[in-house]
Structures are given as structure tokens and as C-alpha cells.
Amino acid sequence: MPEKDRELQQHIEAVIFASEEAVTLQTVRTVTGRELDSGELQSIVERLNAEYESTGRTFRIHRIAGGYRFLTAPEFADILKKLLAPKIQRRLSRTVLEVLAVIAYNQPVTRGEIQQIRGVSPEYAIDRLLLRGFIEVRGRADSPGKPLQYGTTKEFLDLFHLASLKDLPKLREIREILQEHEEQQYLSGPEESAIAAIIHEDLNGTDEKQQ
Question: Fewest CB atoms within 10 A around its CB: which of 9, 44, 154, 164?
Fold first, then answer.
């Protein structure tokens, strides 16, 4: 590989490694000063991942939330959970996670609709989620009073390591995902398993009502 190309690859690797959020194509262009297109960036990422695989590295670069991030390979989830579990503090309460789950699967959704689904006021939870940047206002509903509608953000996708909302598991897939030890989840905190448990609990409740 030419030295100039090798240097660009190293720069991209360093930027993705150092970033606390998914690195977009525009960010790569700005930092490196190179007018790369999406195909060129993807090719570089694939070369890097090939190197990591050939040398037995425990991580790969994944495309999520419209950008790229380093993530540990899922087969190392169990050992990392043992390392991180004593140190991780729940950053979002169960109530807030319940509201986040409702918004993720029903967006765009109003406060009134969230309350109807959960049975309790979502005011505090929505304020917390807005503050953390996991949800945003998507407009107003075409109903009396024109209430605000909410949806998830790129920060939400980044938190759960999703490329897009299309990657949200269908409700019918939740049990299967959980039975496979949440193989599609990576370790970034307790929110991932908590939200899956909430959805699983809701799904069980739905099934019980249908029986």
C-alpha cells in the first residue's frame, strides 16, 4: 500500500478510535482534509477490519447511527460484563426506559399516547430523555390541541448500536433475541439489557391478555 494511502487509513482509524460517538463521513473529510466518498471510506474500514480479523483482534469497526464506531466482538460479551458490572451505575431509571421503549416502537408519539400505553404520566421521563438527547420533537399531531410528537435521535441509535430504526427488532423477535443471550447487543452500559427486559415484559403481558 502506498505510504500516502497507509497514512490516510491510520488517520481514519485514529479518529474513529478516539471519538465517543459514531464518526460520520463529513467528520472524516473535515479532519483528514480529504474529499472521500462513502464507498472509499467503507473500503478503508473493510481493510482495517480485515487486518483486525487476521491478527485476532477482539474488536471491529461497525457502521451505526450514520457513522462508524469501534465495538468489541459479541463473543467477548460475557467476560466484559463480569468486568464492567460492578462499575456501571444505572443512568436511566426503569420508568424512563419504559417511556423510551414506547417512543422507539410507536414514534412519532405524543405525551398523551405514551400515557395511554403506560398508564402513568410520562412528563418526567420525557424531560430526562430530551435532556440526554435520546429523543426529540418531531412536530405536532393533527388532533385537538396540536400536541407535540416525539421520536428517537441518532444518539438513541448510537446507544443501542443500530444503523437505523429499521434495525429495531420486531416484537415477535424479542424472545428469540433474549434467548440467544442478546447476541445483537454490545456493551455500552445497562440500558441495553434493561430496555430489552421491559419490552419482553410488555410482550408477555400482551400474550397473557390474548390467551
Answer: 164
